[in-house]
Give the backbone structure.
Amino acid sequence: QVQLVESGGGLVQAGGSLRLSCATSGRAFSSYAMGWFRQAPGKDREFVARISWSGVVTNYADSVKGRFTISRDNAKNMVYLQMNNLEPEDTAVYYCAAHDGESWMYWGQGTQVTVSS
């Protein structure tokens, strides 16, 4: 079992930056790939970024590539999402998730990010 708690969301103007954090607890965190997803009002949840268990491999949605950076610190059981040059379209609830090798098995409760124009 893995518990995930996101933090760092808030209100920011377009062009600004935020850093989301995901604190994890439970067994074998370092063996899981981790990801960030988001859900805007009236829309489906969508993939944002993913990082391998080692931190070597990262993947991003086209919409955030070049602006967002995912990272992890296995010693601290933490995952981060650095978001730069934010746009109003980035407004959503952001979720941290852990992949157990078969599926995105564990999810946090989400943190709200609002970008004003």
Q: What stands out?
A: The chain has a mean pLDDT of 95.
